[in-house]
Write a structure and sequence with these properties.
It is a single chain. By secondary structure, this protein is an all-beta fold. 3% of the residues lie in helices and 50% in strands. It contains one helix and 14 strands. The strands form four sheets. Strands 1-2-3-4 form a four-stranded antiparallel beta sheet, with no helix packed on it.
Length: 171
């Protein structure tokens, strides 16, 4: 007999995204999102190609994105006060905070020279609306809608990021 769909059916559903091979081709990392309370949790899972084992690599519940460094270290970003924190995970060890950046990062790709190419949100000083304000000021034409709400004074910008210290250079 078929079971009726329950609300818990949707709460158990997992969304898989951003699969990427490690530099040696032995592992695949991916982000798994799942409903938690009134939002989503997101963590990185690793799939071992040789054994077929899938294991959870991060447990913070707020991973935005990840990339592999040339040596196979998994570097992932989480929200931090006023920006993003990048953590390194090497061979099943405890994650280590590598650096923080003062922008909300959306994606990071490793370049051949070892730096990262980072896509981030850039808030134009004095122009971006305060999320807690009772009203919004629209002074950009045309007004932009990006699927996340009406945007004013917030743009996307590319940066080069030094993985040693997190120094950002606008592209």
């Amino acid at each position: 007999m078929k079971q009726p769909v329950q609300i818990d059916t949707f709460r158990k559903y997992r969304f898989l995204s951003a699969p990427a091979f490690s530099p040696d081709g032995q592992r695949v990392a991916l982000i798994v999102k799942q409903v938690r309370g009134n939002g989503y949790s997101s963590d990185v899972y690793l799939y071992d190609c040789a054994s077929g084992a899938l294991s959870q690599a991060t447990f913070s519940g707020d991973v935005r994105h990840f990339t592999f460094l040339a040596d196979g270290t998994l570097l992932y970003a989480c929200p931090a006060q006023g920006g993003s924190a990048f953590y390194a995970l090497e061979g099943g060890k405890t994650p280590e905070l590598r650096f923080t950046v003062p922008v909300k990062t959306l994606q990071a790709l490793r370049l051949e020279d070892g730096r990262l190419l980072v896509l981030a949100e850039y808030r134009i000083p004095g122009r971006a609306n305060d999320p807690g304000a009772a009203y919004d000021v629209f002074d950009e034409l045309p007004f932009r809608w990006n699927g996340q709400g009406l945007v004013n004074g917030v743009h996307k910008r590319l940066y080069y990021c030094d993985v040693k210290d997190g120094a950002l250079t606008s592209v």
